[in-house]
Amino acid sequence: MKFYNKLIYWYLKNKRTLPWRETQNPYFIWLSEIMLQQTRVAQGLSYYLKFTTTFPTVFDLAKADESTVLKMWQGLGYYSRARNLHYSAKYIVNELNGVFPSTYKEIIKLKGVGDYTASAIASICFNEPTAVVDGNVYRVLSRYFGIYTAINSTEGIKEFKTLAQSLIDKKQPGTYNQAIMDFGATQCKPQNPLCESCPFNDSCVAFEKNLVKELPVKEKKIKVRKRYFNYLVIKTEDQKTILSERKGKGIWQGLYQFPLIESDKSINQKEIVNSEKFIDLFPNETTISLYNKKEIIHKLSHQHLYTSFWIVETKSLKKATISWNKIKQFPVPVLVANFLEEFQPKN
DNA sequence: AACTCGGGGAC
DNA sequence: GTCCCAGAGTT
Which strand C nucleotides have any atom less than 7 A from protein CB atoms? Predict the structure, then answer.
């Protein structure tokens, strides 16, 4: 029996019921695929429902402000996905008359769409036999065929794409692609895969040679940068504060935060008050107090942010233009959202 | 080729 | 703590 027949047989019996499996609307499939990049189904699901409800068509998404899109994306991470999604929605509306491109070659031109996403959309929506290679596919193929090539090397990326392409069922590429991903997610899992009940355990190289735990091979690990964030949470007597948008490179582009004093180590209240930024911001009298006694360690994949929130009260401040009761309309990082939730449970 | 971009869940 | 998730863009 061919590889794809066995796989699709498994899929038809074991597939998860998911909302984006009920449609071939390329706009919906696109939304789901962008959201699920480096994101578990369980985490992306509610965002998918929220987006498809609020923006039922690409025209609705294109019409929205970027800030609105980011607010809806808040908490999902990798915010460039939301910015690129919005950019591409406007492109589809303005340049393509709202018609979603229908071939891999055209789909991959969209910003935020790479080989994986273009293959997924082309196969699921337009029946084009382009094989997806995501983390699940790397794992399934490296184990089944006993391949040691690092999945994040240039060579590995090429090798696995070619292999995946040779295995696809050209008559039902969309079903095949979803099958191999679902199989990787629920059966051939990273840890404790269900080999004893696996339909491939009579022909899987890794199972036969007891290499399941060694595969797939991945090169090098990331190193984590430590940063020290001191947020100045301003409260004026007329209930205003300052939020500013993060611009340029780095994390959280387009999201908002309180005025930030960053340092390369922990700093105390005296150092805050004597800093250039603080003096520039508050020429007049203020009261400052540390909100969290212990630094909050916010962990990103490449950075650990040691964070202190400083409550700064002052009579009035010209730059403080944002009312506290409107603060939750702004897209903010989870680090800031968590603080606001505790500091201002209302709204 | 290496780095950067979030947040969370499973172990 | 470690790994990694329906990856892509930039340097």
Answer: 3-9, 11
